[in-house]
Amino acid sequence: MVYKWETCPSKVRAIIFNLKNEIMKILNEDIIGFYIHGSLAMGGFNPKKSDIDVLVVTPKSIKVDAKRKLAKLLLMYSNSPFPIEISFINKDQLKNWLHPCPFDFHYSEVWRGRYENDLLKGTDNFLNDSINTDPDLAAHVTITKNRGICVEGKPIDQVFPLIPCGDYTASIIGDFQECIENIEEDPTYCTLNLIRVFWYLKEGVISSKQEAGEWGLLTLPKEMGDTIKKVIDCYGTEKDANGFEKDELLVIKDYIAKNVQALKKGL
């Protein structure tokens, strides 16, 4: 079963509120806002599979000592039990929008080993004051602007800029290409994400993976229906994704790739 913020289990809400409170302690309550985006905001959160997606906006850049404290905190909170993906952006980085967007600090499970190593050895290979950029932030901010949840702070419309369509498209196309390559390894995520990108380019709809699957079931050629049903079922339950044949995935991949290529030419 999947949830949205308003209907999610109390355990999920408690984790998010506790995380928000601990982050505010580290930053001396000096934040503009704490916002949820992704599946929990849009109604496709599966407690067994989904991660928690967060943006934190601050009035100024975060110092290195605070980054080290944030790393320790997120190493403890993430995967206990939900993976957390969180980015910290200051107001100037949003006001003076660039793509790919600069950010002050980011955590996801990909970064776990890097931060653990820096904290253990006292190094600053990743926990430092350098400014990094992330092309995914164009998508994260757009989704927050359109579908996000303000947990603490200023309303979303007062904080986040309107991202140019070209930047959002470039952001989601990067993930689209990875899904084209990896659909056999991760059929559930990749199939739903391919459909989601197709739907956006075709009709301008910003959707969750769950919503995209339901749209695909109604819209894509009928011969793909059984595969899409299986994908939706795997996404919304604890079922694994081992029951897919290579050929059925290639049919969907080739169909969407061809149509997306045509839509991109028309932009």
UniProtKB/TrEMBL annotation:
This is Spectinomycin 9-adenylyltransferase. The lineage of its organism: Bacteria, Bacillati, Bacillota, Bacilli, Bacillales. Residues 158-242 form the Adenylyltransferase AadA C-terminal domain. Keywords: Antibiotic resistance, ATP-binding, Nucleotide-binding, Nucleotidyltransferase, Transferase. The keyword Transcription regulation does not apply. GO terms for biological process: response to antibiotic. InterPro entries: AadA/Aad9 (IPR024172), AadA_C (IPR025184), NT_sf (IPR043519), Polymerase_NTP_transf_dom (IPR002934). GO terms for molecular function: adenylyltransferase activity; ATP binding. It holds the Pfam family NTP_transf_2. Residues 23-94 form the Polymerase nucleotidyl transferase domain. It catalyses: spectinomycin + ATP = 9-O-adenylylspectinomycin + diphosphate. Gene3D superfamilies: Beta Polymerase, domain 2. The keyword ATP-binding applies. It comes from Falsibacillus albus.
